[in-house]
## 1
Amino acid sequence: MAIHGFRGPLGLLGTVALVTMSLGAPAMAQEQLSIATGGTGGTYYPVGGGLAEIVNNHVEGYSATAEVTGASVENMGLIATGDADLAIALADTVAQAYAGTGRFEGQQLDMVRGLASLYANMVHIVTLEGSGITSLEDLRGKRVSIGAPGSGTEVNTAAILEANGISYDDIDEQRLNFNETADALGNGDIDAGFWSVGAPTSSLLNLATTQDIVILSLTQEEMEAAMVADATFAMTTLPGGSYNGVDEDILVLGIPNVLTVSSEMSDDLAYELTKAMFENIAELRAVHPAANETTIEFSMAATPIPLHAGALRYYDEVGADVPDALRE
């Protein structure tokens, strides 16, 4: 377990503890688990807090705390060093860490394992009513925000466009963050913008209160082309009602967010964590609507690395159809 407290020599505190134990303390202290999430303004932190409450209420002998972190890349490092017991991270980052590619070139973290996939960062391609843009092809020649420089949104945008024969030469690309993209759409400075976020997200919620927004649907062929280009893409559904004026469900591309642990975690603990989460999933869904996607089926379809042996025990127990790629 990750220990976040006194790490010094035994000393007086240790002596007192040993004396107390020898006198027969009524109960052992709970083991503390650390859940690495992200910033307080994102989706990882509240979801991590919900997971911590499930551990606290339903996993005997353990308590958990959601920790604020720099999110996906940092979280993989925290799992590797043992400074976090569980961590949430984007599937592409998880896959790179496990394989030693991309951001993890030369520093493979092959101890990373999956417990489940939680929900997808949904790729929103947004325009306004009356723009004349109704498809991906209609973005040619338009002013399009592709996301902030170096952002996950920019990476996702490039993958989707390039997989479908559209380059940045075909659009007037603008590199804007989420709030800037929303402002530019509202002011008429751009025609469309990309968001890769957990839904709903505040910048779009705010835009939809003053403008009639439209979220584009990709065709089946466009989605399949993107998934061939980036294996961490998965099809998912943006529920109708997520934003004002968006009343119908929309099939979109998502990048799964994966709940990870180390292979060094005991099989029994990994089993109990996985079981507790799925058996009490309503509690997590009450914390954030993104957890409506947290299902066994989504985990089987979206997890990019092998599952921990303890998690596999749970999935086999409930009769899940586990792909061979998720077994070691």
Note: The longest strand covers residues 112-128.
## 2
Amino acid sequence: MFHSRPAPCRAFCFLRLLHSPLIRANGGHLANHDLDMTRSSHSTGLLFAIGSASLYGVNIVFARMASFVGASGSAIVVYRVLLMLALVAIVAVAARRSLAMAREERGKMLMLGISTAFVGICYLSSVAFIPVTVAVVVFYTFPILIVLASPFVEKTPLTPALIGVVVIATLGVCLVVGPAFSGLDWRGLALAFGASVATAIQFFIAARCNKTGVVAKVFWIHLIVLPTSLLISLVTGQLAPPSILALAPFAVAMTIGGYIAGFVLQFLALGRITAVAAGIIYCTEPVVASLASALILSEALSPVQIAGGALVLAAIITNVLLEQRSLKDAPLVPIAD
């Protein structure tokens, strides 16, 4: 999953090349080639994002299974980060990939690591004060935050169509998770919304870290996340020995494996599609979680939840069509894999 794309694909990422005199002089053959390659990269990014969101959704279900036997979420976070760092080091050595980050992206990488840490910490802590379903709904306000911030961050117009897609997707998420807003603690709401804000920041920054390779990016992000997770676990008294993972070996393995694969796919996707598109696609995560919980935990889906899933899928399809239509006006940036 860490192999680089062929060099020509990186060389022809900008659709503005379609309008160069050299291309026009060649009868447009190179323009068609560039367009096909850019669309291919964009389509690959969409698939990566959908795969990542699906893995995160399944990961949530197995994390819940692990919690049933006493394996705390914070303990799993610490050990999955340690495993991620070890795996990245092995891949870097075996594939002879550099762990160096681009000098001009050091500040962005620091912010990316901090925002990633806050996503996990805030989201994990929020469920100590409010129900999981409420936390999910509050957390999944991040697509709205991304769309509202995109005119200022990405200089993209806030079109009525885009607003409509986000509203539909968010409504679908609310229907899928079926929140019961009763007995809510403001601390839980604040933490869940903090995770939402951190996720929006994460998407925007990751979309701009296109010179540091994926292997190095994953390594440095988790190197920043690790001390933060350790500190939280120590403060809350939930830092358990590795033997705690043996309480539910399959569930823990699926949780950690789903997170690692989903995380890598997430950053492969964000270099190929816009933050707005990624934010909407990641609305499939709670839909997948609901379906997985029905199949694995025998939690039946209600007609309302099924309708919500249909709304989310409809919003994603609409967004994909809008993205494809606007490709000629929104060139992608070259990325380092």
Note: The chain has 14 helices and no strands.
